[in-house]
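Q: Could you write out the predicted structure for this multi-component system? I'm mainly interested in how the pieces pack against one another.
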Amino acid sequence: MEFKFTGKAKTLSYVLMAVGLVSIILGFITDQSEHHQHWWANFLVNGFFFFSIGLGALFFYALQYAAEVGWSAQLKRIYEAMFKFLPIGSVLIGIVIVGGLLHQHHLYHWMDHTLYHEYMIEGADGEVSYTDTMEAGAVLNPSYDKIIANKEAFLNPSFWTIRSIVYIATFLIFAALFRKWSLKEDEVGGVELHKKQYKRSALFLVFFAVFSSTLTWDWVMSIDTHWFSTLFGWYVFSGMWVSAMIFALILVLWLKKKGHFTTVNDSHIHDMSKWMFAISMLWSYLWFSQFLLIWYSDIPEEVTYYTQRIFSDKYSTPFFLTFAINFAVPFYMLMARDAKRNLGFIVPVAFLIFIGHFVDTYLLVIPGTMHDHVSFGIFDLGMFLGFFGLFLYSTLNALSKAPLMPKNHPYLEESKELHH
Amino acid sequence: MQKEAAIREPLILGDKSYKDITDDVVGPIEGKAPKAWKLMITITSIIAFYGVGCITYLIATGIGVWGLNKTVGWAWDITNFVWWVGIGHAGTLISAVLLLFRQKWRMAINRSAEAMTIFAVIMAAVFPGIHMGRLWVSYWVLPLPNQFGSLWVNFNSPLLWDVFAISTYFSVSLVFWYIGLIPDFATIRDRMVKPLPKKIYAFLSFGWSGRAKNWTRFEEVSLVLAGIATPLVFSVHSIVSMDFATSVIPGWHTTIFPPYFVSGAVFSGFAMVLTLLLIMRKTMNLENYIHVRHVEYMNIVIIVTGSIVGVAYLTELFISWYSGVEYKSYAFINRFSGPYSWAYWIMMTCNVITPQLFWFRKIRRNLLATFVLSIIVNIGMWFERYVIIVTSIHRDYDPSSWGEFHATFIDIGIFIGTIGIFGTLFLLFARFFPVLALNELKSILKSSGENYKKLHHKDH
């Protein structure tokens, strides 16, 4: 039985997108902050969060091939449908990038060109020019920021844009090729295409290993321009991975309920829940490692990031609550074997930590861009719902474009015979 | 029984029956010790005795006999400690994590990898032990109720967390290993003819009867222990890394340390497993059980973990510049261009560059190349710890107290000695213990044995 994207699901995604559109427009108009900073920050939070879920799906998909995984073979269309969002997600990220380059927002403090030179010369016409040397008529530049100036070789608009294009292009090319080969395998069979996927997946993982870190430095860590943490990339990556696992799991459960995936049994659900559980623990481990080491050493250059979050009326509660929920809820609720097969446990936990990981992303972006001048309003919620609707629409639409059950995958039998 | 795809390579080669597996594994225990074994254990014992001699001299004289000085207060001692703990990681990863991932190929290597883990952790424990200077009061590291007045451990210290982490790790690994051995000991017991060995193996097998109930409990306990051991794979080396990373020393304090140390540990552990198993499979005729495919899998683990380590090296290097912190930048410039740059470049070559050769299928399926590369990785990972420890502290914040470290013959002697002790223990294990988990192997014979696979796919 093929999946048709109709009925309530389609209506729901349309409604969500409509809510989103209204919130985006009204949110922009009503945003009182300078340069609509609040609106832009939210746009980045949501754009990055859903882009990451698509990317997490692409990563997991490649991992299945590279590690020659059998059990998940019949679920591969799920991940394909999810990473089909990447082109849209790239447009969303692209909007933030272009907005920054055109100085429509000030999310990235380092884009301010006045920071980089120690001296400035005020011309007769009031034009200010900047210089590094003490020339005649030059005065000290009050905006000069030595630390940021030191990063100029890396954090400059052109190099940053080139990097962003390289990341996105790489992901889109691999995603398109994977999908193409996967659909072709349905028709022609054999193991040649599978072997090709195996090799290309390994190659993709090499790129991903580097880009998953550097893209988070570029798009997220550079918001807090002074701050740095070597673990940051891996920590953000684990968050995107777990969010993707949650979405995939809920999608499979929903499709099963609709009568699809009759060969997906408790063992598959168990395995998917295990991934959700395991990557939640990975995320918690990385969150805690970064936090503990910075808190313990208490070095001024680093600790600022956490003091901004902890000693703030706005952020301290969500900051610790997010960790508590994203760690403790799966830890206690999904530890037992039977819980990982029981929808009564899986579904509430999945929803809760999905929101938890959204809040985590929110806390990566908002404190550095908005400081304490922000509260989570109705249009912020609306924007989240709208982006969610867009992701839902893109995924379900992609799902309806190909047979749900792949054919000719060499591990398909293993996947269908899974019982443990 | 689980179906296995035709595309998967068989894990047990040849036309093996259940009895053949028993014969192949238990045979060497029943027979006389081969000459090669006697020769090897003689050599390792001599090295071990030399090491024990050096340790005795150190304890009698004091740790001044090491090359440590006021600037470099930690050097080979902690390097060796971290190196050995890291090596220990592979065993637990293979036995616990790969069990959870249902990787059948682990069954050929888990037993010896776990044994290696236990011996490696014992070797690791030697170093902080003798570093205390007064070994006889080493129980002071435990928070015992005492009559010593204000003497109480410092719970804020990662060194104390290490005591807990390593002792927990050791206990769980030991129990895990032993539980797995019980059915295999019982198999040996049932075959033994000589009364004394029979009695010993009977005692070791805890009255195992092989009934269904025994097996059910065995499997349940294995899964529970795997669940407990999996976080330990992460926690132990994370906490070892915190010995350094909680400090304010540039080069030590960096947030990526915990996961990067874990990855490095698995990397070095698999290298050591390969070094040992490539010799063992040859000398004990286990080529049908540990064959090219197993080696290839392990090499893939090496390339993945090695590349993660490589990414971490470059991340650290990049962020040291990006941070704009002068001390941080200098620490790294000093690493690759200072007096210890030779160590840095050995580390980079052995850990990041040469393992990339495993991208070639021919090389990762070539046993000789694997053997050579596994030793190179072992060397590289020793130098990684040396680089982290010595180069970071030999030029600290205050240039007037900069210094250098030179190893004494005691430093070298103790390190070489632990390799001797480790080798001796491993050889004893290989002589008297079932080196393959034979009962577990039997469980995959019909799904992954070459003969059965052929039969199965002929039917279709």
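A: Regarding packing and overall arrangement: Residues 18-137+153-399+408-451 of chain B form a domain with the Formate dehydrogenase/DMSO reductase fold fold (CATH 1.20.1630.10).
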